[in-house]
Design goal:
The protein has 500 residues and is an alpha+beta fold. The protein is 47% helix and 23% strand. Strands 7, 8, 10, 11, 12 and 13 form a six-stranded antiparallel beta sheet that branches. Strands 3-6-1-15-9 form a five-stranded antiparallel beta sheet. Strands 4-5-2-14 form a four-stranded antiparallel beta sheet, with no helix packed on it. Helix 1 runs antiparallel to helix 15 and helix 9 crosses helix 13. The longest helix has 25 residues. The protein is elongated and about 120 Å long. The two termini are 37 Å apart.
Length: 500
């Protein structure tokens, strides 16, 4: 006897690979695991205004690069200006340029951002240690006292920063009052950190509030410690990122630079939008070239075709389970799957009525053909033609009586119906009407259960968006193929023994 161990290892690998690929697609590409999920996105407009002086102008605007948000759509509006998007060590920036610029100018940058759920500000390379600041003679003693007080109560660079931000943001001592007369809270906080060699930088952030206009950036401070940046608000003395905060510029550079213009400023307007999570993930994959091996790169006609084809494994799984494990008899092996596909187009009630009418009429005509002693090929061909005629007649009658549901019976697989009628007719002659009803009823029951499984919205969503699920289905089918025990419906034969 051959060992089944390699078989079970293979099945286990199929399950692991299928589940892993599906989880990866859901996490990495943010494809929702359930249909109908919604996601909140932020549409932000940055308006750059300045007055041109008649000569060449060059405008550089920092663009958002926050790991907590991913760019879904971005575009600019700038009449007559040339535009290029720069992405270098200084971060992403939009660069507008024009030869002759005179008078009031308005440039727009519009972006739609999707929250990623990533709050950590990781850093792969350690920044260089900052140089110690040079204090004015009147500030030297006050700064040193503040530094010493915070340093003594700390045990690491991060705890030192936490002590400092509390002092700068909340305590109103004379020393801090003196230091804050010449520096902003953020700049003072950075200088106090630099005095002990702690890397820090000032960043510009935007509070996201729905339907707000003419908003300005606010300063925050990032402090580096052991591979990660920690966010502090030196004005309030608080640590951490608020839920509605977007980091717009994180390199410590200026947000807006204008050459050849004056009175420059940038303001922000924002609007929160709700979008389908699946459509959002598709748009994001298109932006990042993530659709290279996805069915969504196919034309819509082929996508629609595959949405139907990929439901067949679900129907096959139901047939295998109901026949091998439960023991339900059907007319034909996978005829119920094709009938279930037709039910998806016709709806269940209309499909059942149409199937029974077509098969009943077909059996009556087939009984007449059996008396003509035709060859098998000719008889089957005649049945196919008759089935087409029956479907045509029922369709016309449905149209005449205004029954629009009856028009959908054209979706039934005509060849399969013809073979079903042929099998049932032969079965009637050999086994009797009881066996025909048993197998026909079993076929309809299996087709109905397969339809219920295949028509579930979450099933249709999974089989098309998470192709790894089909590997799991393959593994389950193979496992059931090894089953050699009693079918559940066969256990009734042992019922008398149970009563003894």
């Amino acid at each position: 006897m051959h060992s089944r161990k390699p078989f079970y290892i293979f099945v286990f690998l199929l399950v692991v690979l299928g589940i892993s690929s599906s989880i990866y697609r859901g996490v990495e590409h943010r494809v929702p695991f359930l249909p109908g999920e919604q996601v909140n996105t932020w549409a932000i407009d940055a308006k750059v205004s300045f007055i041109g002086q008649g000569g060449e102008s060059e405008v550089s605007l920092a663009l958002p690069q926050d790991p907590a948000f991913e760019v879904l759509i971005e575009h600019t509006t700038s009449a007559g200006f040339g535009l290029s998007i720069m992405d270098d060590a200084d971060g992403r920036r939009a660069l507008w340029s024009k030869r002759a610029v005179l008078g009031q100018q308005d440039l727009y940058y519009k972006v739609t951002l999707v929250p990623t759920g990533i709050s950590r500000l990781a850093e792969d390379t350690e920044p260089t240690a900052p140089e110690a600041p040079v204090w004015a003679a009147t500030e030297q003693t006050a700064a040193q006292e503040v530094i010493d007080a915070a340093w003594e109560r700390s045990g690491s660079n991060l705890s030192y920063a936490r002590q400092l931000v509390t002092l700068v943001g909340t305590e109103k001592s004379q020393n801090l009052a003196l230091l804050l007369t010449a520096q902003t809270p953020s700049r003072l906080f950075i200088n106090l950190l630099a005095a002990k060699g702690v890397p820090a930088r000032e960043v510009s952030a935007l509070f996201l509030e729905d339907q707000r206009r003419r908003q300005q950036l606010v300063p925050f401070v990032e402090v580096y410690d052991q591979g990660e940046w920690y966010l502090f608000d030196a004005t309030t003395g608080k640590e951490g990122r608020p839920d509605n905060l977007l980091l717009w510029e994180r390199q410590g550079k200026s947000v807006l630079d204008v050459i050849g213009g004056s009175n420059s400023q940038v303001s922000f307007s924002m609007l929160m939008e709700t979008r389908p999570a699946l459509a959002t993930s598709i748009d994001m994959m298109e932006t990042t070239q993530g659709l290279d091996f996805s069915l969504y790169q196919l034309p819509l006609e082929e996508q629609s075709l595959f949405k139907g084809i990929l439901l067949i494994p679900i129907g096959v799984l139901m047939v295998v389970f109901l026949r091998v494990i439960i023991g339900i008899k059907t007319s034909g092996t996978f005829m119920p799957v094709l009938i279930a596909l037709a039910f998806i187009q016709t709806t269940l009630l209309t499909g059942l009525v149409g199937f029974l009418l077509i098969v009943a009429c077909g059996l009556m005509i087939r009984s007449y053909l059996s008396h003509l002693n035709l060859l098998l090929i000719s008889r089957i061909s005649a049945v196919i033609i008759v089935v087409i005629g029956i479907i045509g007649i029922f369709t016309l009658l449905s149209y005449k009586f205004g029954l629009s549901e009856g028009l959908t019976i054209t979706f039934f697989p005509m060849i399969i119906l013809a073979w079903t009628i042929e099998r049932m007719s032969i079965l009637w002659e050999e086994e009797g009407a009881k066996e025909v009803v048993l197998q026909g009823g079993g076929s309809l029951l299996v087709a109905t259960l397969a339809y219920l499984a295949m028509s579930a919205s979450w099933v249709q969503h999974w089989v098309f968006n998470f192709l790894g699920i089909h590997l799991v289905i393959l593994a389950l089918v193979m496992l059931m193929g090894q089953y050699t025990g009693y079918r559940l419906l066969e256990l009734k034969r042992f019922k008398p023994l149970a009563g003894e």
